[in-house]
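Handout, section 4.2: multi-component inputs.
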Amino acid sequence: MQNNFSLSHRKEEPEKGILYLVGTPIGNLDDISSRAINILANVSLIACEDTRQTKKIMNKFNISNNLISFNKENCLNKISKLIGELKTGKSIALVSDAGMPGICDPGENLVSEVKLEGIDVICIPGACAAITALVSSGMPSSKFIFEGFLPKKNIDREKILFEISKNEKTTIVYESPHRLKKLLLDLLEFCGGEREIMVARELTKKFEEHVGNNINNAIMYFKDKEVKGEITLIIKGRKKEKNQELNKADLKRDLKELIKAGLSLSAASKYLAKKNGIKKSIIYNLN
Ligand code: SAM
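Output:
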């Protein structure tokens, strides 16, 4: 596997035998770069999720090129074909229906397999719904957690919801419109109605809206509405406890008392961790 390559001596794009990951708009077709248009117009072929979606971009910018479908259903079978094409010197652009390929879209596997073959991968960056929503939320955006779509299976879903409820960083979640109300109720249960959120709907499109400002308000807003369009949620992290340092001292004291009363360090840590909703190891290491 070839790990290092340098862009400093790159010739005109697109180059032979390269996989280009091309970011495309998440709604507004004008949100595409001239570099992306050049790549789409001049690569040997474009691998895309839904050819009808990609054709909309191509028609808008008068691009004609070879399209090959690469989606959730067929992606595993198509990887070796695409690698074969790259090895013969063809250049390929990978696009998804919207946004950055590889972010909750097929593409991840292709990129890892292509890199294992020592083939260069270059990203032409573009819009991403997660980042677009995050930066317009007004919530802390330099450190964040991206969860994508939450699992549907209860046990996995509850684990993630619990993590979201405890986390101090902003969390980004994707959701489909018909599952939004359920997600808001789940968030109410785990985070409480006062937790700040922003429901970003139809970003970059005509009916873009940002709904918040907390879980209770978002539930009320969507209560009697049929939710349509594309949805990204931004959930503010849990507030830091005001007296966190003091709590630490309190925890240490509680730990000592429990041990004095006869509990093992492990049992006492477990008990205090559960009581305070924090990791056992944090308490354990206070000793
Ligand atoms: N690769 C895409 C990206 O970079 O954002 C995400 C693809 S994922 C299959 C599609 C999900 O992204 C949607 O269900 C929605 O949660 C979110 N999304 C995409 N476009 C959006 C938009 N215009 N407004 C809000 N959310 C959007």
